[in-house]
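Hello,

Our lab assistant flagged a job as stuck in the queue for most of the afternoon. It eventually completed. Since we weren't sure the result was trustworthy after the delay, we are filing this so someone can double-check. Below is the sequence as submitted and the structure that was eventually returned. Let us know if re-running is recommended.
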Amino acid sequence: MSLSARPLDLDIEGRNWPFRDHSRLVASGGMDWHVQELGDENAPVALLVHGAGASSHSHRGLMPLLARNHRVIAIDLPGHGFTRGARSADLTLPGMARALSGLLSTLKLNPAIAIGHSAGVAVLLEMALSQSFPPGRIAGLNGALEPIRGNALLSPLAKLLFANPLTSRFVSFQARMVDMAGHLLRATGSRIDDQGRDCYALLLRQPAHVSGALGMMANWHLEPLIARLGEISVPVTLIAAADDPMVPDRVSRQAAQRIPGCGLEILPYGGHLFHEVAPDQVFALIANSPSAQPAKRSVA
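-- returned structure --
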């Protein structure tokens, strides 16, 4: 079934969105995808994929840095942000991978690098396994390759919440009454800028986005992906923060041992949203990491 809440409108809720002038809607797979594009259209493509409950704004710090030498494509996943028309099947891990592969086919793009954050890392690895798109390499930021610790939404409770059409409206109503965004951001262990906080607050006030995030969490099954990590042939680098309270760095360490030739970088601080806290440092690691060779070191 399709998600029924009114979708966010770029001309209303999105009028002050980061890089709004670079936004457009692209029809693919029965959805209208929110796509942002920066940089030279003839440069190698860098695809940016956010995590559960976020949107393309999560990469606002990385986008201009990557745009120096890339054609940057940042998207809102099905059910998230300003992408509209998602069905329940599009919110599963295989469904998201198929849908995003279809969007890349529509855009006629073959990313030289694909960068994912949190659950977005799982989407990219699933795409690589399906061989539906062949990126030059993948960079994963605090990859959520196991259920997020202590988050009840990533348990069977999420299925019950998603099944109740009133849940998303209740959550968004509560977000208007209390600082729900502030509470959730504190749980990430990251101190991000005011623009980022405002974006998360706006998203939490929108039933359509809340419904999409709940649906993704309710349908998130990572076991088949984890069992096949050893089959990944695309060069991968995983970057994690040692102080991430949501996805411990051991998750990236364990995944790096399973993925052939995987590079691993550990930052000492920054929390779950470290790419929003220190985009310059994360950009440098992505740009300089020898993804095709094993590398395990800590960054002081």
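-- support follow-up --
The delay was a queue issue, not a problem with the job. The result is valid. The CA atoms of residues 242 and 250 lie 9 Å apart. Residues 150-164, 292-300 have pLDDT under 50 and may be disordered.
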